[in-house]
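Quick one:
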Amino acid sequence: MDEKMITCPRCQAVNNAGSFFCYSCGKYFVEIEEGKAGEVPNKQEPGKRLPPAPKAQVIMPGGKEIMLNGAPAFIERSDFDSTLPHDILMSISRQHLLITCENGTYYLQDYGKDGKGSTNHTKLNNTDIFNKGRQPLKGGDIIELASQAELTLTFKLL
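Output:
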């Protein structure tokens, strides 16, 4: 019996779809309401096929890339280079951002603990999105974590 697999967006390791974190690098996978961790919710009508999610990436400070394939993904403290100063690194929540994709559109949410928002907030194109729910993303959007210029990310559609 073939078990479904999920590819870690951080290190590209293959894990069981029901995993809550990557066994290779420790990245948390998203727990979604309508399924297990690592699964993409299926909200389509029977017999109606949705187009595949567009490929996208988040470009991190220093040029590191996190690939997105439509599956929900966290951007979290552990995604950042540990060479950042400790006070800046600690301003990032463990699960700071959540990126999801629905009907071909990517969305950004300031996530934090239990989805209630990060401690130090997130800006999308210089607008604070704390407590504003999901915000649609478009290519070239600038995401700033914790009001720190060193924590500026770029969303890019491929």
